[in-house]
Structures are given as C-alpha cells and as structure tokens.
Amino acid sequence: MVYNAPDVITQRKNLVAACEMGSTGTLVHPTLGELTVSVTESGLRMTESAESGRVFEFTLTVIESGLKFFAVTNSTKSATAVGQNWLRTYTTMLAKYVSMVRGEIRSVVQGIRIRIIRQTADQWIGMVTRSVDDVPPPPPPTPEELQQQAEYEKRQLLDTARVKIDIYQDAVDLDMATDAEKSALTAWRKYRVLLNRVDCATAPDIQWPEQPK
What we know:
Elements: H1 5-18, E1 24-29, E2 33-49, E3 55-64, H2 76-106, H3 112-134, H4 143-173, H5 179-196
Antiparallel strand pairs: 1-2, 2-3
Helix pairs in contact: 4-5
C-alpha cells in the first residue's frame, strides 16, 4: 500500500489517538487471534529516519485485558491467517532448531563424543518427559469461555451454510438447478434456520443441528 504525505500524517495522528494510555481495543494477533488489549503508559513509541528514505516506525506495547484463553476471531479471513501464521511460526522455529542440532552433530567426529551426545540427548528427553508429566492439567474452561467457543463454532458453521446456499441459489436464479440442487438448497436453508436458533449460552450442552449431506 502506498501513502502520500498527507495520508501518512493522517495515519500517524489516527494511530496516536487510538493508542492513548488506558484505551482498550481489539488486536488481531498473527498467531494468537483476536485479543482484547489495553495500551500501557508510554506504550506507543514512534521514530522516523531520513537515512533510509524517511522510514516511519512505531512500537506498541499492550496488555491483554480480556479472557485468558486461545483467542478466536469472527473474521473468517483473519481466522485463516491466524491458523496459518501460528503453524508457520511453529514449524519455522522447529526446523531452525533441528537444523542447528543436526549441524552440530555432523561437525563432531565418531567415537566417544557421539556417545556423550547420545547420553546428553537421553537425559534431555527424560527431563522433558518428566517435566510434561509433572504439569497439572489445565483448569476446566469457564462458562464464559465455553460460550465464546460455541459462538465461534456457530459463526464458522453459518459461514459454511451461507456459501452452500449462495451456490445453490445461483443455480435456481439462473434456471440451471437440477432437482438434487433444489432439494439441497431447501435442506441448507432449513439447516441455517435451526443453526441460527442455537443458544450458545447453554454450552457445552448444545445440540447442534445435523448438516445436510
């Protein structure tokens, strides 16, 4: 995206106004999803540089102030990006670490050093296994968290139904629909009505309607 000078000034003013100390807003994190956050004191810092072609940079420090659970987002596009970015970040970090370890092992000559490495690896594996076993199970989700998770699932299912209905409706509107497509349209519309009636406040005791085949 390209901004002209007035646009940059406007964007900067908007950023400062939106990040006043104590203000609360929604942050779509690339791996954690949609978070409710508050800006800390001196949480926004901006710098400009003429050496690199007047680069404008900002650092934003926030504190999560909403429910503490793996966040979700009601934006299908954002939710997909979050899932992809989380997996990309995790796999990249893991691949770099594995590559580093393999490189170190290859640089070691055969013999006693290999045995030491194997013994050390076994000790680390045992320590990690014991540490994981000692971690207490997470507390059960609160009713608020269960409701938010159900609302997220409901939004996802409604998005799926909308796509199906749009496809079949196009075929009907263009007088191109087969009998099977007409039946499918009716089935998906009934499903969407039932799905829309689901009360997420009753989570986890929700009877989700069955999707059409």
